Amino acid sequence: MLLCAVLALALMFAEHRLPRVEALRAQLSTAVAPIQWLVSLPSDVLSWGSLAVSDQRALVDENRQLRQQLLTLSHRVQRMASLTAENVRLRELLNATQRDDIPFLTAELLSLDSDPFTQQMVVDRGRRDGVYVGQPVMDASGLVGQVTSVSAYTSRVLMVADANHAMPVQVNRNGLRFIIQGTGRFDAMRVLHVPDTADIREGDLLVSSGLAGRFPVGYPVARVSEVAHDPGEPFAKVMATPVAKLQRARHFLLLFPPDVDVAAGDALWTDDFDLDPLPKELMR
């Protein structure tokens, strides 16, 4: 150690006094540089490895958090879209009843009848909510049908398009009154016993007439889609399309019309009328 100290002092004195020693020191530094790099390599590798591992772990954690956040936000967006559409439908329902100020109860679709020739559905309101047999049901566009059976929590609704349903209507343009019957199809109803000379046209809106005390007056039921006159026949063939969105609506209003005898059971069925049998082409 003493020898090294003396040698170091001698080198420092020589570097200070002799100019050539500085050039020699530079050459020696160049020669020693690989040795210094090799000596520092293990520590540099360890330092770089720890930094890389920590950065990778941080990136993995951040990526996981971002994925969870993306999933959560995506779920919220989907739910928000559903709630927005539901809010629009409910607002349409509320606006549809402001004209008559009839008390109502909102309901939501639970299931549809699987029979293609039976247009019935089940809603999530029942006897505990005050629902009664024969109660009118509508959506944001028009009348959907009437309640046919009630349980404690659910109710079955017979739609206006069902072949076993009929109701009195009137032409909104001139007040002519007729009976309209379902055909078993969502897009077709038949106006019965229309005189060949009756003033009814394609595009006429048929609304509930209020007769029989079942449905309130003035609610849209169907729009005339076809008027066919057969020479020699006393009645014209008149077909109509329901205005209610029977295949798409999920939210409905159960109306409570005033002056309706709930216990009277005065629902309007096809059994109450002498109706002609439906043509086979309408039952397909």
Automatic annotation (TrEMBL):
Domain of life assignment: Bacteria
Keyword Transcription regulation: no
One GO cellular component, as annotated: plasma membrane
Gene3D superfamilies given in the database record: Rod shape-determining protein MreC, domain 1 (2.40.10.340), Rod shape-determining protein MreC, domain 2 (2.40.10.350)
An individual GO BP term: regulation of cell shape
PANTHER family: CELL SHAPE-DETERMINING PROTEIN MREC (PTHR34138:SF1)
Similarity comment: family membership: Belongs to the MreC family.
Protein name: Cell shape-determining protein MreC
